[in-house]
Amino acid sequence: MDIESLRIFCLTLKGAEEKMPFDDKTLVFSVFGKMFCATDITTFDFINVKCDPEEAIGLREMYRDVTPGYYMNKKLWNSIKTKGQITDMQMKAWILDSYNLVVAGLPKKIQRALTEE
Fold first, then answer.
1. C-alpha–C-alpha distance, residues 63 and 99, integer Å
2. Computed from CA positions of residues 27, 31, 33, 35, in that sequence, does the dihedral angle turn out positive or negative?
3. Which terminus of the chain has fewer CB atoms gathered within 10 Å of its CB, N or C?
4. Among residues of the chain, what percentage have pLDDT more than 90?
5. Which residues of 44-82 are buried (b: 16+ CB within 10 A; e: fewer)?
6. How is the chain split into domains, by residue range?
7. What's the CATH number for 3-107?
8. Is the pLDDT of residue 117 over 60?
C-alpha cells in the first residue's frame, strides 16, 4: 500500500478526517476526534491501527510484519509494516476494524449520526 491509497481509503470512512496534530510528519486519521490510524509521511514504513487486545497479540504471533504499536499503547495498538508481506486488502480490513472499534467507543448519539449520514 502506498500513502495515497491509505489516504483515499481512510477518508472514505464516514466522519473520517486527516490531521497532523503532533508534528509535521505524523499523519493521523480520526473520527470525531478519536484516532483510528496514523503513519509517518516521511518514511511511510508502517501504519498504527487500534486493535482488540486479544486479537492484537494473535496478529503479532501470526505475522512478522505486525508488531506492538510504535509510540502507542502496546496493548491496544499494532504497527503494520507497509513494505512487508501484508496485502493491501488485509491492511484495509485492519484499518476498518480499527475505525469500527473507535466508533463503537463513541457516544450513541454520535454513532447514530454516523449511520444517518
1. 21
2. negative
3. C
4. 91
5. eebbbbbbeeeebeebbeebebbebbeebebebbbbbbb
6. 3-107
7. 3.90.1150.30
8. no
35-40: which pairs have CB atoms within 8 A and are 24 or more residues apart?
35/102, 36/10, 36/95, 36/98, 36/99, 36/101, 36/102, 37/6, 37/10, 37/95, 37/98, 37/99, 38/72, 39/3, 39/6, 39/82
Taking only the tens place, the pLDDT of each residue in 21-70 is 999 999 999 999 999 999 999 999 999 999 999 999 999 999 999 999 99
One-letter amino acid of 73: N
